[in-house]
Protein 1
Amino acid sequence: MNFKQLEYFAAVAEAKSISGAARELDVAQPPISRQLALLEDELGVTLFLRTNKGVELTEAGRRLYEQSRQMFQSLRTMADSVRDVAAGARGRLKLGVIYSDVQIATHLLKKYHEKYPQVELYVRMGAPDDLLDDLGRRELHALFLRSQSGRSCGLRERVLGEDPLELVMCPETDPAPGRDAIPIQALRDVPMCLLRSDDLWGYGRDLLEECRRAGFVPNVACHCYDTPMELQMVQAGFGVGFLPKSIVAAHPGSPVYTKPVLEFSARSYPILVWEDDPYQSGCVRRFLELAGACGL
Amino acid sequence: MNFKQLEYFAAVAEAKSISGAARELDVAQPPISRQLALLEDELGVTLFLRTNKGVELTEAGRRLYEQSRQMFQSLRTMADSVRDVAAGARGRLKLGVIYSDVQIATHLLKKYHEKYPQVELYVRMGAPDDLLDDLGRRELHALFLRSQSGRSCGLRERVLGEDPLELVMCPETDPAPGRDAIPIQALRDVPMCLLRSDDLWGYGRDLLEECRRAGFVPNVACHCYDTPMELQMVQAGFGVGFLPKSIVAAHPGSPVYTKPVLEFSARSYPILVWEDDPYQSGCVRRFLELAGACGL
DNA sequence: AATTGCCATATAAAAATGGTATGGCGCTTT
DNA sequence: AAAGCGCCATACCATTTTTATATGGCAATT
């Protein structure tokens, strides 16, 4: 059995006539006659009753006709969906996001999903190192991280924006109430909650350096493994934090707020990171394109 | 696109190698290479990444593979179901049954359904003339009737059994209590509920004739249009009826019972009636075969 | 450097498919 | 009643498609 036979068969069924189907398909009558006979032979079933003025489906033929219509339908669907996958309009996109990038990631994904609604999105939040491991294992296609990475060897990245790093505090722990910016000297002896700086991702490393340069040993009250925890500690009054301004700005109801450090401006850069693979799947390519178009 | 290309494609996907698939399918390698290229051209999509030690599905190729498996599955299903329809193991069987034949019909259908469980059964009860009309309109395939028909011109029939016609009564209307059979003379003046005898289907016609031969005019208290109604009238004490013994026997809890008429034995013959069509659908043929094997 | 295994291409043989001519059959028309 | 018409089936040749053989390029291994 092959498509041509089924196609001929369906045309004959619709025209209720072999010669009629031949006219419809723009081929001669005998080929259709023959293919029909071959199909009947292969199935071992009579599909049409030949009358003097055309043909008529048997019960079995009716069944084949119904099924073959579904067949053609799913054939078209199949071809279309394969093209969609290749074009990146369908498929699976798996992304990793660090807490600091939630805003920018969701914003970008919203635009992406509006443009490619058929792509299934998988998103996972986690620590940068864990996400990078998954990226290496090809379990994620791209990551929303912050620049400063020392690990992006063999990886491609794209800067998506910039974000000033500022001190985070609540009214009780404000080292300089009433002032819009905080002089570095005001941080002497102030307890700080910072991301652990023994790896490469902590935002506070340069701030600590700056404090030492200013002549005092900073007081790190708490080392946090992740940003959400740091925010919670700051909110609980443990001390001041040092985080991208946008994270705090995104929580308008929260009692915490930020102020810049006078004489010290640091920035963190949200970046998109991915493997440099020339055979990247379509939806990943489209996503990276969109990120490129939306990037800074 | 055609089946061969899909088949080759699936084999390559499974072997992760063109030459491997060629060995598997027992064809040379170049044809597969070429059909694959044709398929990719038609879809406008790269389905495999060619490496130095085989090939690897792309995302789009993976999609096509998944879909093509379903495709092959439904293809097999389709062919099988068409053969089933032709063999009579699948399809639709529409039957008409008169009340008197309910027992024999259900019994036969039970056996049929055990043998051909995939056939959808449609059964309808009605008056003989209505059923015959539907048979003529091809809305029913066969009917369970009783012989005596004058209308079966052009129809084929098969006797399925025989059934003595007996008087039906309840204790209050018994014309000869204490006796096993009732002499015809005992029916003089006894009110009777009979199927209307102005058409050809009434069971009582010959009984009325016999009464007249015995020298009295029978007292027909009620003319019934159908058997269930006649039974109800008899049960309500309107008079005695005259019906196939098996109908009453099938209602063991009922107060009505039957007795034969002495010196007059009439029988009715359950028959199966159908159109004489050489292109009868498979399930009808199988059903008639089974009826033939089970018939008297 | 040679060998091996892979895929792609070119070409000739084989197979399948399509077109033309023709015949049988039943119905309608003259 | 015979001729004409439209239908499907068959026979046969032409064309197209598909296959097999031979060969080349390429990368990895020996």
Protein 2
Amino acid sequence: MSVSQEEFKEMLKKKGLKVTNQRLLVLEVLAENRDRHMTAEDIYELVKEDYPEIGLATIYRTVQLLLEMQLVDRINLDDGCVRYEIGENTYGDTNGKHHHHHLICRDCGKVLSFKDDLLEELERHIEEETGFHVQNHELKFFGQCKECREKQNQNGKHVEV
Amino acid sequence: MSVSQEEFKEMLKKKGLKVTNQRLLVLEVLAENRDRHMTAEDIYELVKEDYPEIGLATIYRTVQLLLEMQLVDRINLDDGCVRYEIGENTYGDTNGKHHHHHLICRDCGKVLSFKDDLLEELERHIEEETGFHVQNHELKFFGQCKECREKQNQNGKHVEV
DNA sequence: GTGATTGCAAACTTTTTGCATCCGA
DNA sequence: TCGGATGCAAAAAGTTTGCAATCAC
């Protein structure tokens, strides 16, 4: 079940909230950049192209709302700012895409995504052992990307781990 | 291989850095609170008990140093501040303890730890498929803890997921 | 003695909040 | 019309930095 713009409007109305240009544009910008990991500032700059009078505070208030509506995910790549990604079932043709994790290169800062559903077993395990009910997860791997590794090897350095 | 205070002093000297009371105390406080997830402010308050003249900036500079020396880990529980945990092999009798993940309750904010080594297979998988060399990871689960779940059930509410 | 380290205060960055105005329903 | 939503500016919160004084070696 993928959420369309029409469904988003319905969801807003059902909650007694108003459909505004700002809200539609924030979600649209996130949808158009589903491969990026956008900060509030990134979203602000892009929405401003279509709607120059928007304020940064509105971006923050809107992503908060979208988080609560579970239409976007929040991720933190440990670079000092929170980032937002549109949900896998929101606004897209990506009906098959499931969870993905982030691979963060400590050398160049690049962030790769890695699709995977293997955590479901672990989640079941956690629920059985602790009674904690898992609703969502965030998994980051820190290390060195292929390119940085090759670059290091070319420089004749020994790869120390 | 567990790192003792003596080894920490050696590591500092080997890097041409000085052994100061402040550095020893920060690591000691982290070691004494390995079950907590300490913010810079938490560490500051505790070190101040033994060393009232310490400044918050020193805490930040020291944890940065300890991170680089891989004696502590940084975690982010999405509550607005970065947290620090002493490394599993640092200053402890916990030679068998391996990786652990964090279970964050969205209702009461409590953070539980869950020991597990199941991610190693996934890391191998990632290295094979992408060439990304994994050095560390951080895994958080968001959901509802046992107590909050029971409380909700007692109130007669239907548990919606 | 000398260079690394510290404490303090100021600067900086990201995010939140108060409030008058505006706008969707 | 009316209450929710917005833009702006100010405030808050967390972290970093410059610098003179201090301390470890």
